[in-house]
Amino acid sequence: MFPIRDHNPSGRRPYVVYVLMAANILAYAYYTASYASPRALAYFYDAYAVVPAEVSHGYGFETLFTSLFIHAGLMHLGGNMLFLWIFGDNLEDEMGHLPFLAFYLASGIGAGLIHVYSAPGSMVPTVGASGAIAGVMGGYLLMFPKARVDILLVLIVYFRILTIPAFVMLGVWLAMQFFGGLGADPDQGGVAYWAHAGGFAVGLILCLPLWLRRGGPAFWNRTDGQPPHPESAYEYAASRIPKLPRKKRHPGPWGK
C-alpha cells in the first residue's frame, strides 16, 4: 500500500518542503559520489548516522540531526521524499514556513531519541528522514483525518488505485510500525520501526497547540475532518491503473 497523492490543495507554495527535498537529494548525490567505495561509505555512515549505543553513553548527539539527511539507498530516499511531498505541504500551509521547519526537525530528533531508548546498546547505524516525516504524518492525521488519499494497492499481480480517508491509510501505516517493532531485533539492523512510531507520536503531540488554536474538536466539527478547501470536497471513486495495449499476435500456419 503506497500513497501516491492526496486531495488536499495547499494555499501557498511549500518552500520548506522544496528545500528539505532538495537538501536530501543533494546530500545523497554528494556522499554517494564522494565515498564511492563500500568501506568509505561505511565510514561515512559511522560518522554521521545515529548509533544508539554512542548516544546512550552521552556522545554523538549531533548525529540526531545529521542522520536526517542521509539515506541508505535510492528506494529509501525516494519513498521518504514521496511521503514528504504528499503530506508536508499542507502542514507547512497551516503552520507557516519557519514553524514547519522547526516542527520537522523536532520530530526527527525526537524520533531518533525514541529509537535510542528502544535499543540503547545497539551499534547499528541508523539513517533517514523517516522519523521526521512520520512526525509530519502524525500532524496531518490530527489536522486532516478525513482528507482523501489515493493509494496504490499491490497484491502480487493485482494493482488498483483506491481513494481512502487519511485516518485509514495513516492508521494502517502506524499499526504496521507498531507490530513490526514488536517482532524486530534492533541489533540486526533493518527498519527502525520505533523511530517511525515515535516520530509519529512526537509530530501529533507537537501539532496539538495548532489544532487547539483552530478550535480543537470544534475544528473537526466545523470541517468534518476534511481539509478546509472547497477544491477537496469532491468524491473520488476507485480507479484501475490503465492497461497497456498488448501487441497483437500474428496467426501461425495452423491459425494459432
How would you summarize what this structure contains?
The protein is 56% helix and 8% strand. With 256 residues, the chain is mainly alpha-helical.
Report on this model:
By secondary structure, the protein is mainly alpha-helical. The protein has a single domain (2-233), classed as Rhomboid-like (Rhomboid-like fold, Up-down Bundle), CATH 1.20.1540.10. The protein has 10 helices and 3 strands. It has helices spanning 15-34, 38-48, 52-56, 63-66, 74-95, 97-118, 130-143, 166-183, 193-213, 217-223, and strands at residues 2-6, 148-155, 158-165. It has a 3-stranded antiparallel β-sheet. The protein is globular and about 55 Å long. Mean pLDDT is 85; it is low at 231-250. It is found in: Membrane. Residues 243-256 have a biased composition (Basic residues).
Describe the protein's topology:
Layout: E1 2-6, H1 15-34, H2 38-48, H3 52-56, H4 63-66, H5 74-95, H6 97-118, H7 130-143, E2 148-155, E3 158-165, H8 166-183, H9 193-213, H10 217-223
Antiparallel strand pairs: 1-2, 2-3
Helix pairs in contact: 1-5, 5-6, 5-7, 6-7, 6-9, 7-9, 8-9
CATH topology: Rhomboid-like fold
What is the spatial order of strands in the main beta sheet? 1-2-3
| Coarse structural class | mainly alpha
Largest sheet properties: 3 strands, antiparallel
Q: What average pLDDT do the residues reach?
A: 85
The CATH architecture term is: Up-down Bundle
Helix and strand run: EHHHHHHHEEHHH
Q: In terms of per-residue confidence, which ranges show pLDDT below 50 for 5 or more consecutive residues?
A: 231-250
What is the rounded distance between the termini? 39 Å
The CATH superfamily is known as: Rhomboid-like
Beta-strand proportion: 5-15%
Morphology call:
globular
Output the radius of gyration: 21 Å
Number of domains: 1
Instruction: Please give the number of β-strands.
Output: 3
- Any idea of the CATH class? Mainly Alpha
Family: Belongs to the peptidase S54 family.
InterPro entries: Peptidase_S54_rhomboid_dom, Rhomboid-like_sf, Rhomboid_protease_S54
Subcellular location: Membrane
Pfam family, one: Rhomboid
